[in-house]
Amino acid sequence: MILPIYAYGQPVLKKVAEDITPDYPGLQELIENMWETMHHAEGVGLAAPQIGLGIRLFVVDTHPKEDEEKKEKKEEPKEPPIRKVFINAYKIEENGTPWTFEEGCLSIPDIRGDVDRPEQIRLRYLDENFVEHEETFNGLNARVVQHEYDHIEGVLFTELLKPIKKQLIKRKLDKIRKGEVKADYRMKFAVRR
To answer: CA angle 25-17-4, nearest 5°?
Structure first.
């Protein structure tokens, strides 16, 4: 089932999410719905707060983005793409030289901006079967994982933009909060239209 994506201004997007247990109600169905919602919206990641749930759960599929990048650059990706479920993820460390890449977010349609992030992140997390992993992600995979990880920490990519860019998008963010934006997918706004 395709779920509505919570737009900028929804309080759940600014809260630190909580851990869940294997008996979380309807977890497997929720994960399937998140995959379906993310792919429908043509995203590469989706965190539970973006569908209104304050839990430490996100999904990442970098295949679509990798394919797009390969076409543009005509080169093989340095890291193979990933398709993973992350439950109760916690950052162990970030390493490497920060690099700039233009990011967007399904919760903040029509706004993109350059964000500096370290080239590597190491996480401890549980998969959809509650098997624990400790894994390092690099390059584009690291970027997507960091973006989604920020969501479960209550951080939006717009907070990481340079001050001048923040000023330039202020009015657009206010319009999103009010529901004055069009997206190719269902959204739930903080202020009723």
So the answer is: 65
